[in-house]
Specification:
Radius of gyration: 20 Å
Number of helices: 12
Number of strands: 13
Largest sheet: 7 strands, mixed
Strand content: 15-25%
Structural class: alpha/beta
């Protein structure tokens, strides 16, 4: 079984369903689809497939640098943020690491590959699934070699308190702890700049970004890493295999960040649909909902022993089961925020399985 969302074919085959008939709420992808500007650019540059990409991806890095107002030497693009998670772990070779749970599975898998000793910092329902000052105490006492922190968190969609986030950065700097901040979904938060503007304050601060979710290009795979550790970035570039980014993914990075209309439409869609879906879910019985900031909503089914994912599959709807996240039981789920029509179908199906059953 896949550890990630978007496994529609796998779930359809397992349950004897037609994947073409299913609505996928398990993958947090922008329902507006690939920007029209990128579609046009790909058509215009179809012959790019006939040539090797620039192994240094100079135009891609220049485009990213322009957006973030920093030198291109502070950026490393990759085949999705996942490639870069493994690259930074291989570069740092931490002996000990602290992970907040629940959290994205690839942090743990990358660390396990190098036999890193992992300590979990559990986030629980009693604490609102949010870190608090206890995290600062653990960092100061244990002084792990690195900390992974997702802002917003996956799967909860929650952002840490801004003052606490700054205290975490300061604590890591004080104790020379490498801080890897995963901002894969932060583009969905238009008023949140993230930590890239602060990268010069600490050379062991590494910020991960993804273009896959916001711009609906999961099949192209494109992410990037930003840091003031230029030596480390250059070494990671030299150590990885050549041409990990295909020509169309590189082209995407050169085009989509300038598509301001698409970015504005996405923020408008999300503001409207997140509020609507949150209210609709909150009105249903047997559910507890958390007010996330990203393009997905984290919830718990309060009906004992009820498999909500399986029940919704009978309505051709796939949601993300969160039981394989460390620290979560079979009661927890994550649903993407999709188009108005799809969201209404989800609520109608939930009304049937939770109210009418």
């Amino acid at each position: 079984m896949s550890e990630h969302g978007g496994n529609v074919l796998e779930m359809a085959l397992k349950n004897g369903l037609d994947p073409a008939e299913m609505i996928d709420f398990s993958a947090n992808i922008n329902p507006l689809g690939m920007p029209a500007s990128l579609k046009a650019a790909i058509i215009e540059h179809l012959t790019s497939a006939e040539c090797y990409p620039d192994v240094e991806y100079r135009r891609l890095h220049a485009a990213l640098a322009r957006v973030h107002h920093c030198p291109a030497e502070n950026i490393m693009a990759g085949n999705g943020a996942t490639e870069l998670i493994y690259a930074i772990v291989n570069r740092l070779r931490p002996r000990t690491a602290l992970l907040l749970t629940p959290g994205f599975a690839e942090y743990r898998r990358a660390l396990q590959r190098i036999d890193c000793q992992i300590e979990d910092f559990p986030l629980d329902e009693a604490g609102g699934f949010q870190p608090d000052e206890r995290l600062l105490q653990v960092l100061a006492e244990r002084q792990p070699d690195c900390l992974f922190l997702a802002t917003p968190n996956n799967p909860t969609g929650l952002m840490p308190d801004p003052s606490l986030l700054q205290a975490i950065v300061a604590c890591c700097r004080q104790h020379n702890i490498a801080l890897i901040v995963d901002e894969a979904f932060i583009d969905f938060l238009p008023d949140t700049p993230g930590l890239i503007p602060q990268m010069a304050e600490y050379s062991r601060l590494y910020i991960l970004r993804s273009l896959t979710k916001f711009f609906a290009i999961p099949g192209l795979r494109l992410g990037y890493l930003v840091s003031s550790d230029r030596v480390g970035l250059e070494q990671m570039k030299q150590l990885r295999e050549p041409w990990t980014i295909n020509a169309y993914a590189a082209l995407a990075g050169e085009v989509i960040l300038d598509d301001l209309d698409y970015i504005q439409q996405t923020h408008q869609w999300l503001a409207e649909q997140r509020a609507w879906l949150f209210d609709a879910l909150t009105a249903l019985p047997h559910l507890r909902i958390w007010p996330g900031a990203a393009n997905y909503i984290f919830l718990r089914c309060l009906r004992p022993g009820y498999d909500l994912q399986q029940a919704l599959l009978q309505h051709r709807i796939l949601i993300r089961h969160c039981a394989n996240y460390p620290g979560l039981s079979t009661d927890y789920y994550r649903v993407a925020i999709k188009s108005e029509a799809a969201n209404r179908k989800l609520i109608a199906a939930l009304q049937q399985v939770l109210v009418e059953d």
